[in-house]
Model the fold of this input.
Amino acid sequence: MTLTKEFLKGLYKENPVFRLMLGLCPVLATSTSVNNAIGMGSATLFVLLSSNIVVSLIRKAVPGKIRIPVFIIVIATFVTIVEMVMAGFFPALSKSLGNFISLIVVNCIILGRAEAFASKNSVFRSILDGLGMGLGFALAMIIIATFREILGNGTWLGIPVLGESFNPITIFILSPGAFLTIGYLIGFFNWFESRRLAGK
Amino acid sequence: MKDIPHFALVLTVVACFSAGSLAWLNTITRPRIIAQQQQELDAGIMQVLPGSENGVIKAVENDGTVSFYKGYRNADSTSLIGYAFLIAPQGYSSNIRTIVGIDSSCSRVLSIKVLSQKETPGLGTKCEEIRSGETAPWFQEQFRNKPYADLILDKDGGTIESITGATITSRAIMLGVASRMELLRDELDIPNTMIN
Done:
């Protein structure tokens, strides 16, 4: 696979949320507003990139049988680093995002990429993979949050977009709204993909 | 079986690296976090005791730890505004650290402010939500000048509007305020008859 493709695959073809259906729990929980989606997306991108680099660096020293516990320690360490640095140096950001950061530990995209990619590939390829997958995750979060925030709250990034007369459909902010939105979007992407393949 | 010492060694090395780097980072971030919390608390006390900006705040200790604060309107601390205390009731998924200001007769809430919480994103976190066009969180504003006897949620027949989908969070804050008020009355020896 070429290096460009290694990076691009995470954005659409192997998009973690819409194509691989990985890490759906944090997506469901934190896509209530675009602001949260951007924060959660970038924090996940950082952890994914860092853990991919470290896992790739130590891949030859770690025996296969204990690779999962080792990966989990690496991931948890980076998540804690994000949490501590945010709380110490960006209190405002930490206040709006503090609730979500620790959820990154259980995001299976990160463990998934460590296991399926970084533990078998060079550091450089792992960086590209981490960047692509992380951006793909962040983009997916932003798309889902856009629908949920506009329909459920009448705002986008906190700015009112649908006017005073709009009565927000609260269910889109609640959990069922997350399932509905993700379901329709996955349906759309499957339909789009099958059309694309049929056209080939 | 002969692999086990090897596995243990690898895991130990990795864990030591992890713990070491976090411990080092902690020495840098910890003091900053504590300083921010203190600053936040000081600002919070002043905010929940309106009128204390030009006066003084005094901490009242009980067994070596701060139990509550007294806020005065003036610098020579003769004109008491009321009391402030920190509560951290258990919500749905976190302790909701909240600073509460009450009047000098211990019968009325002056104002409350949630300092930190890790409730469910999009539901319980709305206890800090500021609606567009408003300047203060609507849920907390409901406690402003609320008599003790009116600390009842709408779901229980009262007037405090609970957060949609987060009754546990709403109730935790409300009960936290009410029960700490009762304790403070005991501490200050204010008879309950004055309240009702």
Residues 41-194 of chain B form one domain. Chain B touches chain A at residues 3, 6-7, 10-11, 14-15, 18, 21-22, 25-26, 28-30, 32-33, 36, 94, 116-123, 125, 132, 164-165 (CB under 8 Å). The CA atoms of residues 129 and 135 of chain B lie 10 Å apart. The two ends of chain B are 73 Å apart (CA to CA).
